[in-house]
Amino acid sequence: MARTVTLKGNPLNLEGPQLKAGDRAPDATLKKDLVTDMKLSETAGTPRIFSVVPSLDTAVCAAQTKRFNEEVSKLPHVAIYTISCDLPVAQKRFCATEGIDPEKLHMLSDHKDVSFGRAYGTLVPALRILCRAVFVVDAQGVIKYAEYVPEIAEHPNYDAVLAAARAL
Questions:
Q1: Which of 59, 97, 148, 162 sits in a 20 to 30 Å window from 155, CA-based?
Q2: Which residues have CB under 8 Å from 58's CB, separation 6+?
Q3: How large is the average pLDDT for residues 1-13?
């Protein structure tokens, strides 16, 4: 059965599995910058939030990223990653413009081969973007919270995400 999300009410198919709490977090290879790859498995051993956004150049994605930037200092035991298909240079420009320290709120790009999108079931193949989603993963690599936001233009449930992260 096809999984979908909507963008301003228009349905869009998703590719990949629908992950849920209790599943093992899949590995994926993303770009830290234009030349440096990073496997998500390299982040193991620390609780993590994967904040997935379609594009930092949109208002809701920017607001979501800024919100997690505000929360990162309140969750010193949790690493937070923003993941999008934006090019790494665009992510870097966004951080510079918005005053986000990429050493605290980490940026990862899935633009090259969308391996994260396929592994986490967030790929919107028709637009080659990721749907809005958030995953909270414990230090052992188990998903403790998974949210696929049904309408891409809406925010995730920040309170639920933060509660799951604080419980780690």
A1: 97
A2: none
A3: 92
pTM over 0.85: yes
Expressed as residue numbers, the domain containing 136 is: 21-166
Residue 1 has pLDDT above 70, yes or no: no
CATH of the domain at 115: 3.40.30.10
Residue 129 lies in a domain: yes
1 within domain boundaries: no
Backbone angles phi, psi at 101, to 5 degrees: -85, 110
Q: How far is CA 5 from CA 30, 42, 69, 96, 136, in A?
A: 23, 30, 26, 31, 20
- The torsion region of residue 88 among left (phi > 0), alpha (psi -120 to 50) and beta comes to alpha
61 belongs to the catalytic site: yes
Kindly state whether residue 35 falls inside one of the protein's structural domains: yes
Whether 51 has a pLDDT exceeding 90, the answer reads: yes
Catalytically annotated residue among 61, 85, 95, 131: 61
Across the range 2-21, mean pLDDT stands at: 95
User: CA–CA separation, 92 vs 115, rounded Å?
Assistant: 21
CB 78 within 8 A of CB 47: yes
Within a domain: residue 134? yes
Are the CB atoms for 167 and 21 separated by under 8 Å?
no
For the chain, how many structural domains are there in total?
1
